């Protein structure tokens, strides 16, 4: 026998059904928004991939072309004096160094994308990592007339447990970025110290200030503020995204803020508990021994 509902019970049942219907409509709306966002990200990723392939092709092909052309000229010439040979070899070195740096970033991005990257913790001297990162781009800084001010607050011989190769690549990308986007004849300021959160590193340049609403996007591999293939500033455009990914792997953080005359980037990396067992750093090198990446011809 079917129970007959009174008016109050009928109204309550209708309100319950209406609530269920409204929730279903909201869920459908939320799902549509999520799908729209996913489609937008896929479109952005596809556009970035096309742009990235075009740009990185130039960044790899151009140094190779320059290197082979100069080397061929040296081999064919019978009248070059030592000063001219030195200048040409220095140019070869600089092109090869730039190529090496780009390839390191590309290989790191590929490892991150495939999920095949892990921390390899060693005991390292942070002051040496910082100095090596600065030395790597001293020639580029000199060409722009830049002055690099350092405030490195470590005691002599002070060590830190972390993945030194990943931390070094973070700092190299930040130094490279600061040099690249600095105004000519300006100053790059760098600070490093230990605090309660671990290793603290900040670098500030004098140049264009990125609007606050766009700052988070600069760490996204699928977004770039400057999408022109023939940008005045060379590079693959993935350096800052790699910094963010590597900082995450090291359980740290990176942020961008407005400095006194330009942009300031800050990195905080906590110290790892202990070094990885059986890790040999020697297998991670490409063309150059990092102890000699000073931009000078040896």
Class of secondary structure makeup: alpha+beta
Order of helices and strands: HHEHHEEHEEHEE
CATH class of the domain at 122-292: Alpha Beta
Number of strands: 7
Task: Write down the overall geometry.
Answer: elongated
* Low-pLDDT residue intervals, each spanning 5 or more residues: 225-236, 280-287, 291-298
* Portion in strands: 5-15%
Helix fraction, binned, reads 40-55%
Tell me which CATH architecture of the domain at 122-292 applies here: 2-Layer Sandwich
Task: Examine the coordinates and then state which fold CATH places here, giving the name of the CATH topology of the domain at 122-292.
Answer: Heat Shock Protein 90
Spatial sequence of strands, sheet with the most strands:
2-4-5-7-6
> What can be said about the biggest beta sheet?
5 strands, mixed
Mean pLDDT: 81
CATH superfamily of the domain at 122-292: Histidine kinase-like ATPase, C-terminal domain
Cα distance spanning the termini: 99 Å
Radius of gyration: 26 Å
Query: Helix count, per DSSP?
Result: 6
